[in-house]
């Protein structure tokens, strides 16, 4: 365990904003009289958020006063938990997990990037944008190596993808949270090996499967396509939403401006990971669309398989065929192909249900 000290330079005073004072009063009221010290973590966390993600000494003393605790007791809490920063941090505060699973999966290489780009742990870059520290397991070991930046996780990192992520943050460009490889949740890197029937990945449709259907869900698109009724309703609602959003744009809006108005651009790879997949095996993707997808940094089935609803809307609008990705079930086809299955173009017995018609 490392020694944790208060910052040498401290503000003269601290007080909660009126909103945070009202919030703190509610937190304290959750506990019986005489037990208000139970709110110490919550109040310190709120004080840290208000102070730019670090805890000045006056904030610690303010929390002690509000909870009727000796200063030293609150200081003990603040110095015990690495979630509390005792000195200023960068606007993007990076916590690198260095525990065994992440270490075995390349955390040391990520650390080398941090040292090169930012400096030693605790150092804030001159522009105030970045600082970092090494922490213990953050509970995302299946997606190692990973970092937490402010409140979000960034997983499945490589030195290259992490360096690109830092570049994007520094330039104020949008970044993708979660897996940087497009992996859905914590499923195996090589594709699902279990529950494939549940998700309709064994070549049978969800309709015919005896397994229970996945619930309607706004996140992974391939879960949505199995619930045909919900998918149909969602597709109709989305098309209406897209039409309304596009109608508000100027007539000379670019494809990208239109796509940005209705969805979120999928994460792009700068180059294929090894050989690109033959995207033309997806029914609906010919040479022209494959070229467009390559231009968007999409080279692999698993990238398309991981598209969210917002990303489907973005690509569909960018390529000027809203709704077609759903109708042709690109995501479901890509998911099958990514998992070693066949697509309709392969002439196999594979069936996919059209979300519009159910046929
Ligand atoms: S070991 Fe890194 S998140 Fe658990």
Topology:
Elements: H1 18-29, H2 40-50, H3 57-66, H4 71-80, E1 92-97, H5 100-104, H6 107-117, E2 130-135, E3 147-149, E4 152-155, H7 159-171, E5 178-179, H8 221-224, H9 228-247, H10 255-262, H11 287-295, H12 301-305, H13 309-318, H14 324-327, H15 330-338
Parallel strand pairs: 1-2, 4-5
Antiparallel strand pairs: 1-3, 3-4
Helix pairs in contact: 2-3, 3-4, 10-13
- Output the strand order for the largest sheet: 2-1-3-4-5
Multimeric status of the protein: single chain
Radius of gyration, in angstroms, nearest whole number: 25 Å
* pLDDT < 50 runs, ≥5 residues: 198-228, 348-359
Overall pLDDT level? 83
| Molecular shape | elongated
Question: How would you explain this protein's 3D organization?
Answer:
A hairpin with a 2-residue loop joins strand 3 (147-149) and strand 4. The protein has 359 residues and is mostly helical. It has 15 helices and five strands. A five-stranded mixed beta sheet has the order 2-1-3-4-5, with helices on one face. The structure holds FE2/S2 (inorganic) cluster.
């Amino acid at each position: 365990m490392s020694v944790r000290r208060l910052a040498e330079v401290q503000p003269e005073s601290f007080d909660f904003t009126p909103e945070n004072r009202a919030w703190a009063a509610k937190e304290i009221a959750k506990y019986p009289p005489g037990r208000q010290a139970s709110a110490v973590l919550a109040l310190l966390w709120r004080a840290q958020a208000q102070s730019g993600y670090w805890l000045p000494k006056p904030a610690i003393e303010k929390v002690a006063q509000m909870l009727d605790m000796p200063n030293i007791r609150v200081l003990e809490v603040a110095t015990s938990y690495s979630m509390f920063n005792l000195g200023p941090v960068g606007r993007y505060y990076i916590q690198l997990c260095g525990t065994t699973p992440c270490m075995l999966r390349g955390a040391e290489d990520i650390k080398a990037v941090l040292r090169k780009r930012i400096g030693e742990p605790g150092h804030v870059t001159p522009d105030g944008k970045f600082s970092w520290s090494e922490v213990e397991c953050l509970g995302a070991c299946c997606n190692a190596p990973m970092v937490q930046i402010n409140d979000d996780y960034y997983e499945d990192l490589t030195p290259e993808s992490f360096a690109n992520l830092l570049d994007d943050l520094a330039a104020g460009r949008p970044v993708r949270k979660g897996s940087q490889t497009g992996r859905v949740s914590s499923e195996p890197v090589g594709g699902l090996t279990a529950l494939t029937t549940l998700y309709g990945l064994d070549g049978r449709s969800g309709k015919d499967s005896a397994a229970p259907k996945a619930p309607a869900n706004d996140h992974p698109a391939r879960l949505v396509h199995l619930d045909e009724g919900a998918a149909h309703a969602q597709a109709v609602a989305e098309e209406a939403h897209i039409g309304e959003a596009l109608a508000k744009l100027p007539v000379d809006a670019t494809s990208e401006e239109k796509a940005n108005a209705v969805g979120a651009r999928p994460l792009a790879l700068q180059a294929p990971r090894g050989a690109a997949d033959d995207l033309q095996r997806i029914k609906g993707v010919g040479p022209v669309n494959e070229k467009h997808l390559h231009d968007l940094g999409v080279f692999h089935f698993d990238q398309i398989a991981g598209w969210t609803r917002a990303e489907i809307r973005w690509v569909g609008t960018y390529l000027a065929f809203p709704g077609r990705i759903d109708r042709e079930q690109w995501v479901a086809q890509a998911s099958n192909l990514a998992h070693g299955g066949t697509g309709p173009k392969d002439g196999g017995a594979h069936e996919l249900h059209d979300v519009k018609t159910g046929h």
